[in-house]
Amino acid sequence: MNMLSIVNAAASIEPDTWHLSGSDLVTRQMRLGDLSGIFKDVEAYKRRDPQTLVYTVQAYMPVAEGTPGGLHFGTTVIEPGRVGEEYFMTRGHSHAQANRGEYYWGVQGEGMLILMNREREVWAERIKPGSLHYIGAYTSHRVANTGSVRLIFGASWPSDAGHKYDEIARHGFAARLLAGSRGIPDLIAEP
């Protein structure tokens, strides 16, 4: 950067879709075939097309992952849908640096942020346009789309937080979010 120069931002957000463009971007699409073991109803999972898009994550990472003192920014779009009685959801993660927090905020649609602490206590917060969610340290988290349109939310996390998926892949969450009988999501404890 030159002294007294005026430059354009390195990345931008499309206001209607929250699609990111620019440099230092990472994009990942997760399809049903990538989410084996996430949904409880294995038979319903097997009946679905493994190429069905479940969610897309874009991350703007202006500093390398693992850099202390930096911030990353991302957007996630979860498609509407279910496998059996479970809503389409992210696979969920905790942070490699477990003492790092994160922010999520709702942009479009309806969903649930599912949280689990180290004692495996689970609770959920409704995500809707304008909702702001602080995810504290030592908290695993995933998001489910409970609506009939795409759920879009933004996120910001420390660049040195890292992502840990293996523990949730092995042990899951201690509760599942199911479509209730009256169309209202129910958080049900796992035995």
Quick overview:
With 191 residues, the protein is mostly beta strands. It has helices spanning 42-47, 166-171; strands at residues 11-13, 20-22, 25-31, 53-60, 71-78, 82-83, 86-87, 102-108, 111-116, 122-127, 132-135, 140-145, 151-158, 175-179, 185-189.
Total count of strands = 15
End-to-end distance: 57 Å
Overall residue-averaged pLDDT value: 95
Task: Supply Rg.
Answer: 17 Å
Classify the secondary structure makeup into a structural class.
Answer: mainly beta
Order of helices and strands: EEEHEEEEEEEEEEHEE
Number of discrete helical segments: 2
Strand proportion:
35-45%
Report on the architecture of this protein.
This protein has 191 residues and is mainly beta. It is 6% helix and 42% strand. The chain has a six-stranded antiparallel beta sheet with strand order 3-4-5-13-8-11, with no helix packed on it. Strand 6 and strand 7 form a beta hairpin. The longest helix has 6 residues. It is globular and about 60 Å long. The termini are far apart. The mean pLDDT is 95.
